[in-house]
Write a structure and sequence with these properties.
With about 325 residues, this protein is of the alpha+beta class. It has seven helices and 16 strands. The strands form three sheets. A six-stranded antiparallel β-sheet has the order 15-12-13-14-11-16. A five-stranded mixed β-sheet has the order 8-9-7-1-10, sandwiched between helices. A five-stranded antiparallel β-sheet has the order 3-4-5-2-6. The radius of gyration is 20 Å and the shape is globular. Pfam families: GCV_T.
């Protein structure tokens, strides 16, 4: 492990309260899979839910890799460096099993799969001065400048920075002129508020993509053709009725619930969902959870066997879009 992996010392274990306007977090909870070779685009197009072939060089997209039953083995942010090289950032414990499963198919293509985590440092940057902070450290905006690092926009004031490991300390020190270092929890809270869920090791092969609202985030293509699990995913979109999907909730509890923690209806005592991810805000715990649609509005939802306080439903940024689409069915 080279020197730049000691960067965690530059970031607090707990974020300050109140949260800073512009913040910087070290995304060391994920690992990066490098898929390269002359067949890289064709190979990934037949394996992933997102439309790899339509992605511009230097662009990024959310996506998932499903098993033949349409259940997600991993979800990730995919970054295209060239037609022959892609990077996929996913929950750290999932990289090894995902790489092993993809390797079964890679033998039929001119493509290589490698864990390149040590080559990159990924940072989350958000807030009103995020764009200025990124510009000040001269990060590239396209793959031709990848050696200098890349800035990937998630929303108007939220971005991921992909930084070559040998430049990481220099770039972090420069960014802190405009952004305050915070704990990873703060970044996870930001993603929760954007409605971006993630497959974790505890929820591997638990969800189909629509259960994590991945189609709302551009992570599922229904036009690109076949990929592993595509038949199940497409059937649910066009012929089925999705009975469970991801919601955002708030909770005034004390302990942070782990992914896959059951969500219980206090009246019936039955499990009606499970936690996807959770993080602390200044006031409470916020979480994303996959719930039965008919149970989402209940006032008696609780985390596992903790009956009080009850969970409260919160909004997602794409809630109106989902409601409009549902009304149009």
């Amino acid at each position: 492990m080279h020197e730049t992996r000691d960067l965690s010392a530059l970031f607090p274990q707990q974020s300050p309260a109140p949260s800073p306007d512009t913040a910087l977090a070290l995304l060391d909870h994920e690992r990066v899979l490098d898929v390269s070779g002359v067949d890289a685009t064709r190979f990934l197009q037949g394996q992933l839910t997102c439309d790899v072939a339509a992605l511009a060089t230097g662009g990024s997209i959310l996506g998932a890799r499903c098993n033949p039953k349409g259940r997600m083995q991993s979800s990730f942010r995919l970054l295209k460096l060239s037609d022959e090289r892609y990077l996929l950032a996913m929950d750290a414990p999932l990289l090894e099993p995902q790489q092993a499963d993809l390797a079964k198919y890679a033998v039929f293509f001119k493509v290589q799969l490698n864990d390149c985590t040590e080559q990159w440092v990924r940072l989350g940057l958000w807030g009103p001065q995020a764009a200025d902070a990124s510009a000040a450290v001269d990060l590239g905006q396209n793959a031709d400048e990848a050696d200098a690092g890349l800035a990937v926009a998630l929303s108007h004031d939220v971005m991921e920075l992909w930084v070559p490991a040998d430049r990481a300390r220099e770039i972090i020190n420069a960014l802190t002129d405009k952004a305050q270092p915070v704990a990873l929890n703060a970044w996870q809270l930001r993603l929760i508020r954007l409605g971006i869920g993630q497959v974790r090791s505890q929820t591997r092969e638990s969800f189909i993509p629509q259960m994590l609202n991945l189609q709302q985030l551009g992570g599922v293509s229904f036009k690109k053709g076949c990929y592993t699990g595509q038949e199940i995913v497409a059937r649910m979109q066009y012929l089925g009725k999705l009975k469970r999907r991801m919601y955002r909730l708030t909770w005034a509890g004390d302990s942070l619930p782990e992914p896959a923690t059951p969500i219980i209806d206090g009246n019936s005592g039955q499990a009606v969902g499970e936690v996807v991810t959770a993080a602390r805000s200044d006031e409470c715990i916020e979480l994303l959870a996959v719930l039965q649609n008919e149970a989402a509005q209940l006032a008696t939802l609780s985390v596992s066997d903790i009956s009080k306080p009850a969970l409260e439903l919160a909004t997602l940024p794409y809630e109106e879009q989902m409601a409009a689409e549902a009304a149009g069915e």
